[in-house]
Specification:
Blueprint: E1 3-4, E2 18-22, E3 28-32, H1 37-46, E4 54-57, H2 63-74, E5 78-82, E6 85-89, H3 100-103, H4 111-120, E7 122-126, H5 139-147, E8 151-155, E9 158-162, E10 170-172, H6 178-189, E11 194-198, H7 204-216, E12 219-221, E13 227-231, E14 240-242, H8 247-259, E15 263-267, H9 275-284, E16 287-291, E17 294-298, E18 308-309, H10 321-328, E19 335-338, H11 348-354, E20 358-362, E21 365-369, E22 377-379, H12 383-395, E23 399-403, H13 406-409, H14 415-420, E24 425-429
Parallel strand pairs: 3-15, 4-14, 10-11, 18-19, 22-23
Antiparallel strand pairs: 1-5, 2-23, 2-24, 4-6, 5-6, 7-9, 8-9, 11-13, 12-13, 15-17, 16-17, 19-21, 20-21
The protein binds uridine-diphosphate-N-acetylglucosamine.
Uridine-diphosphate-N-acetylglucosamine binds at residues 38, 41, 107-108, 135-141, 175, 177-180, 201, 318-319, 341-342.
C-alpha cells in the first residue's frame, strides 16, 4: 500500500543520534545490499520528464532520497512510497523550481536542472549541497547546458537555466564528471537533434539511468563508454524500473568482512561493478568467490599492504577510499593511497588518528602503516568518512562512539541493523 511522503518528515532527525560500537567481533553470515543511491537520485529526477507515472523499485530509504522526493512533491508532483517502491506522477508538476533549502542538502538536487530544462525549458534551484569533500563546482554541467542552447544566470547561489529551443550539440567534458554527464544526457534527451558527449563518465549508475530513459522512449547509445550519443525525442512515457545494487555499500560490507577476518556473503552485488575492489582485495590476500547473486568474502589470513589510486570508473572508486584506508591499517607493511578525484577527502584521517591509526598525509597522498586501533569518540565528517569510522569501530579494541551520523544515514540504508545481523555490536542511540 502506498502512502504520501510526509512533509518535513526528516526535520528534527538531523544531527541527532550516534553509533556506539564494541569492536573485535568477526562478522559471519549474509548481508543484503540496497539499491544504489547515486542511481536512484537521477532516476527519480528523470521520472519528471515523462508524460505519465513511473514505478521505481529497490529505491533505498535514505535521507538524500527523502529530500529529493520532497523537492519534487513541492513542485506539485505526486510521490507515493511503499517500502522500497516509489510511484511518481509528474503530470501535476506546476512549479519548475526546486525548494532552495532542500536543494542545498544534497548534491543530487542538481539533476532537477537538466530534467526541467528539458521538460519545461526553464528551471531554478540553489547551488547543490552534499558532502564536504572539496570544491564541488558545476561548471561542466552549465557548459553542457549552454552548448545545447540554454541561457544560464547565477545569482547569490541561485542557478537559473532557460532556453527557447534546445538543440543537440557535440560536447567535450574536460573531466569525466558523473554529474555533468548525467545532467547533459537528461537535457539532451528532449532536445532537438543529436548530442554527442565526449570524455563522458562511464559509471554503472549512468548506464542504469540510460536503461530507464530508454524504456521511457529515449534514444541513447554508447553509455558505459566515453562517447555517448543521444538522439532527441519529443516525449517520454512513464516506465517501471529496478535500481541497480549499490556498489559502494557492497564494497563497504566486503571490506568489513575482510577486516574482521570473518566470512560474509554479500548478496545483491554485481561483481562486475566492484572489480577494482575485488582486484585489490585479491592482491591483499583476501579470499573471494563471485556468483551471479553476490560475492563471498573470506578473511582470516594475513593482509598484505597495497597501493591505491582513486580514479573515475572503472578505476578504484573515490567513494571507497576512506573505508579502504581502514583496512590498510590492518595490513602488514606500508600502503600508499592517492586521491585524485576530490581535493578534501582525507578528513577521516584525523578521526582515525584518535583511534590509533598511523597515517601521514602529504597533499593528495596518504601513507598508512600498520596499527592497532582502539575505541574512541569520533565524528563523521562526511558520508564515506563516516562509513570508514564504522569499519574502524568494528575492528577496534573497546568502545567507539561516532557522532554526526546523519552524514552516514544520507547514504547507507539501515546500516546498524544490517551489520548487527552479521554479528557486529553496533547500536544507534538517539
Ligand atoms: C558523484 C557521486 C559521488 C562520487 C563522485 C565521483 C552522486 C550524487 N555523487 O559526484 O559520490 O564521489 O561522483 O565518483 O552521484 N567537477 C568539476 N566541474 C563540474 C563537475 C565536477 O570540476 O562541473 C570535478 C569535481 O570538482 C571533482 C570531479 O570533477 O573533482 C568529480 O566530480 P563528479 O564526477 O562530477 O562527481 P559528482 O557527480 O558530484
Amino acid at each position: 500500500m502506498y502512502f504520501l511522503l510526509q512533509e518535513d518528515k526528516w526535520k528534527g532527525l538531523i544531527k541527532v543520534g550516534k553509533f556506539i560500537i564494541t569492536g573485535c567481533t568477526p562478522l559471519h553470515g549474509e548481508i543484503n545490499v540496497s539499491g544504489a543511491k547515486n542511481a536512484a537520485l537521477p532516476i527519480i529526477a528523470a521520472s519528471l520528464m515523462a508524460d505519465g507515472p513511473s514505478r521505481l523499485l529497490d529505491i533505498p530509504k535514505l535521507r538524500d532520497v527523502e529530500n529529493l522526493c520532497e523537492i519534487i512533491r513541492r513542485m506539485g508532483c505526486r510521490v507515493e512510497q511503499d517500502g522500497n517502491e516509489l510511484l511518481i506522477d509528474p503530470t501535476t508538476l506546476d512549479t519548475p523550481e526546486a525548494d532552495h533549502d532542500l536543494a542545498r542538502k544534497l548534491r543530487g538536487s542538481y539533476y532537477i536542472l537538466g530534467v526541467l530544462l528539458a521538460k519545461k525549458r526553464w528551471a531554478r534551484t540553489s547551488l547543490p549541497g552534499g558532502c564536504n569533500i572539496g570544491n564541488r563546482p558545476i561548471d561542466l554541467h552549465l557548459k553542457g547546458f549552454k552548448a545545447l542552447g540554454a541561457e544560464i544566470n547565477l545569482d547569490h547561489g541561485i542557478v537559473e537555466v532557460k532556453a527557447r529551443n534546445l538543440s543537440g550539440n557535440r560536447i567535450y567534458l574536460d573531466y569525466p564528471s558523473v554529474g555533468a554527464t548525467i545532467n547533459i544526457m537528461l537535457a539532451a534527451t528532449l532536445a532537438e537533434g543529436t548530442t554527442i558527449i565526449e570524455n563522458a563518465a562511464r559509471e554503472p549508475e549512468i548506464v542504469d539511468l540510460a536503461n530507464y530513459l530508454t524504456v521511457m522512449g529515449a534514444q541513447i547509445k554508447g553509455v558505459g563508454t566515453d562517447i555517448i550519443k543521444i538522439e532527441g525525442v519529443e516525449t517520454l512515457k512513464g516506465a517501471e524500473h529496478r535500481i541497480i545494487p549499490d556498489r559502494i555499500e557492497a564494497g563497504t560490507f566486503m571490506m568489513a568482512a575482510a577486516l574482521t577476518k570473518g566470512e560474509v556473503f554479500v548478496r545483491n552485488v554485481l561483481a562486475e561493478h566492484v572489480k577494482p575492489l575485488i582486484a585489490k582485495l585479491n592482491e591483499m590476500g583476501v579470499e573471494l568467490k563471485e556468483d551471479i547473486t553476490g560475492v563471498l568474502v573470506k578473511g582470516g589470513g594475513p593482509l598484505r599492504a597495497v597501493d591505491i589510486k582513486t580514479l573515475p570508473y572503472p578505476g578504484f572508486p573515490t567513494d571507497l577510499q576512506s573505508q579502504m584506508m581502514v583496512l590498510l591499517t590492518q595490513a602488514d607493511g606500508t600502503s600508499l593511497v592517492i586521491e585524485t578525484v576530490w581535493e578534501n577527502r582525507f578528513t577521516h584521517v584525523d578521526e582515525l588518528a584518535r583511534m590509533g591509526a598511523d597515517i601521514k598525509i602529504d597533499g593528495h597522498s596518504a601513507l598508512i602503516k600498520p596499527s592497532r586501533l582502539t575505541g574512541a569518540e569520533v565524528t563523521a565528517t562526511d558520508l564515506r568518512a563516516g562509513a570508514a569510522l564504522i569499519l574502524a569501530g568494528i575492528v577496534a579494541y573497546g568502545e567507539t562512539t561516532i557522532r554526526d551520523i546523519y552524514h552516514i544515514e544520507r547514504g547507507y540504508e539501515n546500516i546498524a541493523q544490517k551489520l548487527s545481523s552479521i554479528g557486529a555490536k553496533i547500536k544507534k542511540v538517539n
